[in-house]
# Entry
Amino acid sequence: MAGVGYLGLRNAIKCLKRARSTASLQHYSASAAAGPHYPGIVESTDEYRFVERLIPPSRVPEPPKHQQYPTPSGWTPPSAEPPPLPYTVRRSRMHNIPVYTDITHGNRKMTVIRKISGDIWALEQEVKSYLTQLTGKCPPTQVNEVTMSIRVKGYYDTELKAWLTEKGF
# Structure
């Protein structure tokens, strides 16, 4: 029902209610329904192609192959073979690296790395050492083992995305 607004749904419900009320007045038995006035059920497979356009895809398709990477949008595919590290960072369902920015309490700027599997503490140590080397100071981090995510104080999303892409994720 994607793309159908509130008024469209409201009109569809009104039509269904009208159809039910007229159907209850013109109640046919099974034997009477097969008579000459009622042609029966006609199944049309030719018109189903119009319905298929409206059904959303069940999954995101694989991205197409390009001649060169990164693409004009800056996207780079993961390496064919995952790197031999004690942790992995899976791509999002849209094939992007799951590093996001977040603002909490009105002005606290945070960077979140999600979809981590494996040794999350080893990734946290590597992130800390990379950002210390990059900025000259060690940013505060928070590891959440339940959601398998790491929060870093400050906006480092572009740096961490480039770093994870270099590592092969």
